[in-house]
Amino acid sequence: MSMTTDNLALAPIAPASWLFSHSSRRYSHALTLVLIAPLSLLLAAGFVYPIGRLIFLSVMAPEFTLEYYERIISEPLYLYVLLRTLQTGVIVTLASLLFGYPVAYLMARAKGRTAMIVASAVFVPLWTSVLVRSYAWIVLLQRNGIVNNLFIETGIVTSPLKLLYTEGAVIVAMTHVLMPFMILPICNALRTIPSEYERAARNLGAGHIDAFLRVTFPLSLPGIFAGCVMCFILAIGFYITPALVGGPGALMMATLIGQQTLVLLDWPFAAALATVLLTTTLVFVLAFRKALSISKGMNSVN
């Protein structure tokens, strides 16, 4: 029987078989490959190829050699700079977690005007240039800066302190710059935790602190993990803030790599330094992930 014109108009249009699989909610393999192809090409061109080229340059100069890696191990200066970079990254990450978690908790639980004020305090510095924020710390910490003048006027000290171009200044400035990257993941994790969980724990006899430590804090560990990874990776690769606030006395790996490429023009050695820094970063990320999985397992057992 032939279909009428009205029936043809009302008949559903069958999708192409290569677009969808049997389930209407799933794409076929062909369409999936088409959708991820642009992102895959961008990832290959912007990340995989530069990293591969970097590693190749560090071992092929012009033939295969491990001379530059042996140089890093044999000369104490480079290992010292690497260890100090990792130490600074760990301290900045812990400081960002210590000061950022209460802000994230308030940001997740507050409402109305308080929530708007807290969100503004987090986002406005994030939208400001890192260069501007670093120069602001120079104004605060220099010998005739606001902090030294305040100490002298209050009688805490009689002469200006050396606050700028020190490792402490680098840690303080980097913590200020990176704290939003800790606050936002933790705030997002806290917002996914129903407030009824903590109230139920208090109804069962737990105090505010005990309910927080046994319920809220363990459930916010994924946000803490994400924030720590972001802060640590950004901290050990920071260039602008240590160069401006720390100076030559607080040399870090990013600054050292910049000197090798821009001043000494030793690109293979700079590539070896960058490869070592990248490998160290991956090891720490895997360690963070393993620690998080172990913590989840212990919480599930408890």
UniProtKB/TrEMBL annotation:
Its main location: membrane. PROSITE patterns: ABC_TM1. Keywords: Cell membrane, Membrane, Transmembrane, Transmembrane helix, Transport. InterPro entries: MetI-like (IPR000515), MetI-like_sf (IPR035906). It is a multi-pass membrane protein. It comes from the Bacteria. It is found in: Cell membrane. Belongs to the binding-protein-dependent transport system permease family. CysTW subfamily. This is ABC transporter permease. It comes from Rhizobium lentis.
